[in-house]
């Protein structure tokens, strides 16, 4: 028996990890309803269109990945007026929705009063969401993403209500404080009272790495919709497995032979779209996560990790892909 009705599965924004190439791959594999970009950092200026397009090249594809999945732009900053100006520019570029980041724990970002540090100031959250909301047409939903708090949870409800009252139409909660960083576990049950109090949809996020985690997260948080980050990068088939479970079926984990062509695809896209010397780094980053979830892949990944030269790395990837495909 599936314990839940269908809910949306959102791909989490992850700076330096989920760029447009990763979004392209993960949404081709399937099961994802919506993606959010890496954050666009707003300080004290109106950013040029090319900067918007660097973070979100899907702008030129009507804000969709090549597979057709909608992409939402995420803004990060503490200056309400500049956030509003830049939101307006995104709206003119056709943004289907805009998200605001109140969860980033990075020191450099927090030092400049962006991200999670704002969770100490509900009135600033309100001002930012309000300004962005008022700057763009009503047809463009403005959403926000936050953590349970900065040091503790004392302002959790106040922050969530400030965001709602300012006009946000959805709130994603990563179920940890800033101080908790990424230390497991995520506290899904702490989202539940917020969901109860808010009229807007609340989306649960944090540490969903398996089908079982997904169902446990929904049960504990009471949320219909779940955002998944690292779990989807490490297991690109997870959203499809979740979907199968929601209709009472079981979908087996992919075999190495199914993963192999994506490895080649991912390398080639990175080679085509970024300086080729950076491509091996991106592939290794992904492989490391993938191997964490697929022990059979580890020996192959070890073979690749040590190669630094981009050309030789590509040759090795090709050889590994051939072997994996032939081994089936
Ligand atoms: C490498 C990395 C980069 C991240 N970048 C962002 C970001 O740009 N914007 C944001 O709102 N959250 C960001 N996050 C937080 C994730 O969106 C998510 O809330 C967190 O990883 C917990 O979800 P998960 O356990 O499913 O990965 C980032 C997390 C990681 C690990």
TrEMBL record:
InterPro entries the UniProt entry points to: Aldolase_TIM (IPR013785), DUS-like_FMN-bd (IPR035587), DUS_fam (IPR001269), DusC (IPR032886), tRNA_hU_synthase_CS (IPR018517)
Top-level EC class: oxidoreductase
Domain (DUS-like FMN-binding) ranges: 10-317
Enzyme Commission number, as recorded: 1.3.1.-
Stored PROSITE patterns: UPF0034
Catalytic site positions: 104 (proton donor)
Site (Interacts with tRNA) residue list: 41, 101, 182, 282, 284
Gene3D superfamilies reported for this sequence: Aldolase class I
Residues that coordinate or bind FMN: 74, 145, 205-207, 229-230
SUPFAM superfamilies listed in its UniProt record: FMN-linked oxidoreductases
Superkingdom classification of source: Bacteria
Annotated function: Catalyzes the synthesis of 5,6-dihydrouridine (D), a modified base found in the D-loop of most tRNAs, via the reduction of the C5-C6 double bond in target uridines. Specifically modifies U16 in tRNAs.
Name of this chain's protein: tRNA-dihydrouridine(16) synthase
Organism listed in the record: Pokkaliibacter plantistimulans
């Amino acid at each position: 028996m599936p314990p839940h009705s269908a809910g949306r599965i959102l791909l989490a924004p992850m700076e330096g990890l989920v760029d447009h190439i990763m979004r392209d791959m993960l949404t081709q594999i399937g099961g994802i309803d919506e993606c959010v970009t890496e954050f666009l950092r707003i300080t004290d200026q109106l950013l040029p269109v090319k900067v918007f397009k660097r973070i979100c090249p899907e702008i030129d594809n009507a804000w969709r990945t090549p597979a057709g999945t909608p992409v939402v732009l995420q803004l990060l900053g503490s200056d309400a007026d500049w956030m509003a100006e830049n939101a307006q520019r995104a709206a003119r570029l056709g943004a289907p929705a805009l998200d605001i980041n109140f969860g980033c724990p990075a020191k450099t970002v927090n030092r400049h009063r962006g991200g999670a540090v704002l969770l100490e100031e509900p009135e600033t959250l309100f001002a930012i969401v309000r300004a962005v909301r008022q700057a763009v047409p009503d047809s463009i939903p403005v959403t926000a993403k936050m953590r349970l708090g900065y040091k503790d949870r004392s302002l959790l409800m106040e922050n969530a209500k400030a965001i709602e009252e300012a006009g946000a139409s959805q709130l994603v909660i990563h179920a940890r404080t800033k101080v908790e960083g990424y230390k497991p576990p995520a506290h899904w049950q702490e989202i539940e009272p917020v969901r109860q109090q808010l009229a807007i949809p609340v989306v649960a996020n944090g540490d969903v790495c398996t089908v079982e985690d997904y169902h446990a997260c929904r049960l504990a948080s009471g949320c219909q919709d779940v955002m998944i980050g690292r779990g989807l990068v490490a297991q690109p088939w997870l959203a499809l497995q979740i979907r199968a479970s929601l209709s009472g079926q079981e979908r087996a984990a992919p075999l190495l032979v199914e993963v192999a062509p994506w490895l080649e695809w991912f390398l080639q896209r990175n080679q085509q779209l970024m300086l080729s010397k950076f491509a091996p780094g991106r592939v290794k980053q992904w492989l490391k996560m993938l191997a964490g979830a697929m022990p059979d892949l580890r020996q192959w990944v070890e073979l690749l990790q040590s190669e630094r030269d981009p050309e030789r790395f590509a040759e090795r990837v090709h050889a590994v892909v051939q072997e994996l495909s032939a081994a089936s």
